[in-house]
Amino acid sequence: xxxxxxxLPQRYLRTQEAARFLGLSERTLEKHRTYxxxxxxxxxxxxxxxxxxxxxxxxxxGLVTSTSDPRGGSVLPAKRQPLSATAGGRVPR
Length: 93
Description:
Number of helices: 4
Domain Helix-turn-helix: 12-61
Protein name: Helix-turn-helix domain-containing protein
Helix content: 25-40%
Number of strands: 3
CATH class of the domain at 9-62: Mainly Alpha
Order of helices and strands: HEHHEEH
InterPro entries: DNA-bd_dom_put_sf (IPR009061), HTH_17 (IPR041657)
Shape: globular
Region (Disordered): 62-93
CATH architecture of the domain at 9-62: Orthogonal Bundle
Pfam family, one: HTH_17
Strand content: 5-15%
Structural class: alpha+beta
Radius of gyration: 19 Å
Largest sheet: 3 strands, antiparallel
Strand order of the largest sheet: 1-3-2
Oligomer: single chain
Distance between the termini: 58 Å
C-alpha cells in the first residue's frame, strides 16, 4: 500500500480543515501556533497550511495511558497573570 501512496502529492489542510480534522476550534489551533505548542505548519503564499502527516504526529504526542500520566494535562501554557498594581493603584501598560 505504501507504494501507491508514495506517488501521490502530500495533502495540505488550511487552518479550518486542520482544526476540524483534530476536533479543535480554529481559535485553539491559532493559539497553539502563537505559543509554539501546536503542530508544525507551513506558510505557502502567505497561507498557513498543515500536512496530514504532521497533524497525526502532533496528535500522537498527546497519547497517554492513564489519568495519572503527567502528560495528560493541557498542552497550552498557563495564562499570564496580570501585572501587580503600582503604589499609585494603577496597572502599568
